[in-house]
Amino acid sequence: MTDYDVIVVGCGPAGLMACGELAKRGLKVLGVDKKPRLDKNYRTASGYCFLDQPFNKEFIKMTPEGNKTCLEYTKIGFTLEYSGTMEGIYHSHMFSDTGKHWQASARKKPFYNLFVPSKCQSDRYKWAKKQGTKFMTATVAVKASQTDKQVELVVRKDGKNKTLTCKKLIASDGLSSRIARSIGANEGRTLFGKGPTIEYEMTDVECPYDRGDMFFFGANNFGGMAGGLIMVPSPNGKNAFRLETMSVLPASTSTAIIEHFTKKGPFSHWFKNAKIIDTSGAVVEMLTPMITPYRGNILFVGDSAAFAECLYQSATMAGYMGAVCTEMELHGKKGFEEYDQFWGKHFEWVKNPKRMADYTKRVLFPRFFTVKELDFLFELSEKNPIVVDEPAATPYDFTTMVMQQFMAMPEVPDDLKKRMQDIIDADMAKVATVIGKGQRA
Ligand SMILES: Cc1cc2nc3c(=O)[nH]c(=O)nc-3n(C[C@H](O)[C@H](O)[C@H](O)COP(=O)(O)OP(=O)(O)OC[C@H]3O[C@@H](n4cnc5c(N)ncnc54)[C@H](O)[C@@H]3O)c2cc1C
Known about the structure:
eight-stranded mixed beta sheet, binds flavin-adenine dinucleotide
C-alpha cells in the first residue's frame, strides 16, 4: 500500500496540468513544490505563445470568450480555459551595437500572442485543486528511489525530512531537475551552458517604436559587458515591458547589464519615468534532451527532460499526456512507452539534434556577424522593410526567416549570403562555439 497513486514533483505548467488531469481521472495524487504559493509565477517568463499556428506538432485554436480565452489543443484533444485575453504582437525589433534598427512586421497574423504567466499558473492551480489534487507547498523534493512496485520520495518541509511513497512519480521539476540527478537520469546528456537571467517588469517605458519585442545586443549597450537583453511588451500596465537579460555566470552580471541598460546605456532615456512593478530571475541550463523520458516508475515531463524549454503551452501539453499515460501504466498498460512516442514526435530536438541549434539561433545568430556587417544589414532592412502576411516566427523558424529576407536583398554580397546559409545549416556543435561569446570582432 502506498501513500498516493501518483506524486507529482514540481507544480509549474506541466506539473499542475498533470495533477489536475490525474485527479479528474479519480486517482489519489499529491503535488509537491518548493514554492510557498502555486497561484503565482516566480520564475522569469516573457509570456509569449504560439496560437492558431503549428508549434511542436500541435495546433492550439484560440477562441476569445468575453474576457476569457478558450484554448483547444486540436491534435491531442483537450481544452483549457485561460482567464484573460490574448494580445497579438505584430512587430519585432532588433538593435545593433551602434543602435541601428531592424524591424519586421506582420500584416495578417501576429508573430505570437501574449499571456500573463501568473494568471496561467493561477488558473491551472485552482482547476487542479477543484479536481481533488492535494498539494504540499514550501516542500523540497530531496531525492527519489524506487523498486519495481513503488517510488520513495524524501521531502524536506520546515527543516524536517519525511518519506512519502507512491506507485508512480511524475518529475516535472523543471530544468536542472533534482529528481533526474538523484536517480542518475541525466547521464549521457550534454551540457551546452548555463546562464542567468534577471527580469524587470516596468511600466511607463517611453519606447518610440511599434509595440513589439525588442532585442538588444552588443557590448556598447551594456557598458562593455558581453550579453543581450530582450524587451517583450507586457499586458500589466501602461507602456509596460518585461526586460530580460542574457549573460554568463555569475548572476551579478545580469543585474549589472540591466542596471546599465536602463540607467546609463544609449536607450536609458526610454526609462527616465519608468517604474519597476515586478522582478524575477532564473538560471537556464541547456542540456541535450532525455531521449527516453522515463526510468522504471518515474516519468519526466516538461522542462525536466527538455532541451532548454518546452514553453508554457507545450509543458502543459506534456503534463496532460503525462497524466493520460501514467493512468495507462497504473492499469497495467505500457503508458510510459506511449509517452515516449509522444515525446519524440512532438519535441523535434529529441530525434533531430539540428532542431536544438535552430531553436537557439533565435538569440545567438547576431554573434556570427561583426558589428559592421550587422549595421550594414540593418541599414538595408530600413530601406527594404520586412513586411509579411503570416510569419513563420516560432523560435525554430525565426532565424531562417530573417536570413532568407536578407539573402533576398540584391545589395547583400555573396560572401555574406554564404555566411547566412551556413547559419541556417549550422548544427549545435557550430552554434555552441558562440555560446557565452560576444559579437565577432
Ligand atoms: C527568461 C525566460 C523566459 C521565458 N519566456 C517564456 C515565454 O515567454 N513563454 C513561455 O511559454 N515560456 C517561457 N519560458 C519557459 C517556461 O518558463 C518553461 O518552459 C515552463 O515553465 C516549463 O514548465 P515546467 O512545468 O516543465 O517547469 P517549471 O515551470 O520550471 O516548473 C518546475 C516547478 O518545479 C518546482 N521545483 C523544482 N525543483 C523542485 C524540488 N526539488 N522540490 C520541489 N519543487 C521543485 C519549481 O518550484 C517549479 O514550480 C521562459 C523561461 C525563461 C527562463
